[in-house]
Amino acid sequence: MRMKNRDLYLILADTSLILGQRLSEWCGHGPAIEEDITLSNVALDYIGQATSLYKEICAQEKDGKTEDDWAFLRDASQYKNLLLSELPNGDYAYTIARQFLFSAWYYLYLEQLMASKDEFLAGFAAKSLKEVKYHFQHSRDWVIRMGDGTEESATRMQNALNEIWTFTGEMFTSTKAELAAAEEGIGVDHLSFQDAWNELVENTLQQAQLIKPENGWMQKGGKEGKHSEHFGFILAEMQYLQRSYPGAKW
Predict the structure, then answer these.
(1) What residue numbers bound the domain in which 195 lies?
(2) Alpha carbons 13 and 1: distance in angstroms, whole number
(3) Which of 118, 135, 193, 242 sits CB 3.0–4.6 Å from 108 for a disulfide?
(4) Consecutive H or E run containing 76
């Protein structure tokens, strides 16, 4: 039996899974050993969060599926992640800019989700917030360091922000499932903390001596299964083992 708020769970789980997959690509390629380890750990945090959500879906639906089925055995149109999470890593400035904009949003989102009437989601938010606070602080520190650093580091960070900005609007656009969950006290009204997010971002960019990009047309559709051209390549890498050797275990 399909659980009532499954789409809400999947938006959170799929976004965490795909962003974790992206960040894991830095393993062995970080600009310094500390950052290599840090990004790998952040990736594991997100994958752990996704696993927790998939497990809860399995527990509630009781249809024989496992968290691996949800992670590895769906077609692209069945994933509901934010488009922001599937963007290629680019250079280190691009990865940090993406991480900062997302974790600033996720930090505020989880703070509100802790008040959810869904007992599991409230507990999930409280636990995950501890991790996401660190993700936010780490990425924020690097935005300031690079923005207020050399001419090249500042240029790279500004260019990254300008390019990514059109993907931030989706974070504050709710699907029908999210709106229904928010009305029931299960989910979160995204618009309720948009001003706080803008203030958080603006304050950080001011300290970094960077310019906040202007709002305009925004990308959307990821939460409804409409993905970028990059998504198929992510799934091909993620799903190869399970598709080639069904049920394979480490």
Answers:
(1) 6-244
(2) 19
(3) 193
(4) none
Tell me whether residue 209 is in a domain: yes
Domain membership flag for residue 250:
no
Q: What is the DSSP letter of 224?
A: G
Work out the number of other CB atoms within 10 angstroms of the CB of residue 65.
13
Residue 175: inside a domain, yes or no? yes
Token pair listed for 109: 């989102």
Give the pLDDT confidence score for residue 217 in this predicted structure: 93
Alpha helices in the chain (DSSP H): 6-24, 33-61, 67-72, 83-86, 92-113, 119-147, 151-164, 176-183, 194-207, 231-244
What tens digit of pLDDT does each residue of 190-210 get? 999 999 999 999 999 999 999
Angle between helix 92-113 and 33-61 (nearest 10): 40
User: Which distant-in-sequence residues (6+ apart) come within 8 Å of 76 by Cβ?
Assistant: 225, 227, 231, 232, 235
Here the CATH number for the domain that contains residue 197 is 1.20.1260.10
Please tell me the total count of domains within the chain.
Answer: 1
Residue 196 or residue 241, greater confidence: 196
What's the pLDDT at 250? Answer: 67
d(CA 26, CA 28): 6
What distance in Å separates the CA atoms of residue 86 and residue 144, rounded to the nearest whole number?
A: 24
pLDDT digits (tens, 9 = 90+) for 114-154: 999 999 999 999 999 999 999 999 999 999 999 999 999 99
Pair 8, 183: CB distance under 8 Å: no
In a domain, 159, yes or no: yes
Q: Is residue 99 within 8 Å of 91, Cβ to Cβ?
A: no
